[in-house]
Design a protein that fits this description.
The protein is 48% helix and 12% strand. The termini are far apart. The strands form 3 sheets. A 5-stranded parallel sheet has the order 3-2-1-4-5, sandwiched between helices. α3 links the parallel β4 and β5. It contains 19 helices and 11 strands. It has 2 domains: 100 residues, 3-Layer(aba) Sandwich (Rossmann fold), CATH 3.40.50; 225 residues, P-loop containing nucleotide triphosphate hydrolases (Rossmann fold, 3-Layer(aba) Sandwich), CATH 3.40.50.
Length: 368
């Protein structure tokens, strides 16, 4: 059973306990422990509370993958960095939670319709998150803070694992710790976190996506115990599963992928076409680093592009451990070819993609 841990001073912990009780009906008895992090210890106890108090080392020794840690305090960045470094990813920003429920926030949210001043209340405008990202100081690639996150947002089968592998090597951070895999409209949550430093959006010709997705699901079916793949050919997969998956899912914008493109371009996230990444990997990586204001030597970018080219990546990652290398070892990568749909995609499916997803295809130049 998952546990909730509060990493904060006793005084801040009290506020978090009250917030969880008020907003989520979470009782003190349901909180596993309050954690004293170095330099956060103080003399104020959690008033008349029976919640256990443990040290940070004790927390790390007992945490499971399902447990959740709420972090508050002046040492927030250091604490989050250390949790990430230890592979603890269910981390929540208690500071933001408290700020969003203080008196000013609560009042403005109920009183917004009656505001008569010249300037709209800033607390109701989330664009300040993106403004802070835009105006942030450039980062030296050798000094990436341990609490910073980077998001790879994509249509599935558009080079997500490939990009994550290159970012791991280039930035010196780990996937699933500081690099988030995010599909389509997941970006609404993943891109709004205050410690996200950069987002890159990967797209691909949907005709090639369908071919790659079909083969990937077929391999997955066999790994998961089916006697044979559930869908015998691409036509059956596309009409019998994929259209429904995309059209009925909030994650995939209910099939309106152009809405997703509107969202990411509005927020100034760089879009990288898979085809362009294959054609000139170094240039596209350099473009992403410029958007993120991360200073990376040209030689580093060239070396990463060479050592982790699509055809060399399985060999490069063969002896490594981690999320991306594990994906590669399970056969997640296929051929990675551009335009494979021309020989593998049935005409009926190609015609339906051109009609059903015409806005997406035209926007990205795949209709030419």
């Amino acid at each position: 059973m998952a546990g909730i841990y509060i990493l904060a001073t006793r005084q801040d912990a009290r506020k978090i306990v009250d917030w969880m009780s008020y907003e989520g009906q979470i009782s003190e008895a349901e909180i596993a422990a309050i954690v004293d992090y170095p330099d956060l210890v103080d003399d104020q106890g959690v008033h008349s509370s029976n919640i256990p108090v443990i040290g940070f080392k004790q927390l790390c020794s007992r945490l499971s993958a399902e447990d959740m840690v709420v972090v508050v305090g002046q040492q927030f960045k250091h604490a989050v960095s250390e949790l990430f470094a230890r592979g603890i990813n269910n981390v929540f920003d208690g500071q933001a939670a408290l700020a969003s429920h203080d008196l000013s926030h609560r009042f403005i949210h109920i009183a917004a319709p009656y505001h008569i001043g010249a300037n709209y209340p800033e607390l109701l405008d989330d664009s300040h998150v993106h403004l802070r990202r835009y105006t942030a100081e450039p980062l030296d690639v050798n000094r990436i803070p341990g609490h910073k996150l980077f998001v790879v947002n994509s249509v599935p089968k558009s080079g997500t694992a490939w990009m994550m592998a290159m970012l791991e090597r280039m930035l010196g951070v780990k996937a699933k710790q500081q690099i988030t895999l995010s599909h389509v409209m997941d970006i609404i949550q993943d891109g709004s976190k205050p410690n996200v430093h950069g987002v890159v959006v990967l797209v691909r010709d949907l005709r090639d996506v369908v071919v790659s997705w079909f083969h990937d699901l077929a391999r997955s079916d066999l790994r998961n115990g089916f006697c044979e793949p559930r869908y015998t050919d691409i036509t059956e997969f596309y009409f019998g599963h994929l259209i429904g998956l995309l059209s009925a899912s909030r994650r995939y914008a209910f099939g309106n992928l152009a809405d997703w493109l509107n969202l990411v371009t509005c927020n100034g996230f760089p879009i990288v076409r898979y085809e362009d990444l294959v054609r000139d990997t170094s240039y596209r990586l350099r473009k992403v680093m410029n958007f993120w204001k991360v200073r990376v030597p040209e030689q580093t970018i060239a070396d990463v592009a060479r050592r982790l080219s699509f055809d060399k990546m399985p060999q490069t990652l063969a002896t490594q451990q981690g999320y991306v290398s594990d994906l590669v070892k399970t056969g997640h990568l296929r051929k990675g070819l551009v335009g494979v749909w021309k020989t593998e995609l049935p005409p009926r499916v190609a015609e339906d993609i051109e009609r059903r997803f015409s806005a997406y295809q035209q926007w990205l130049g795949y209709d030419r």
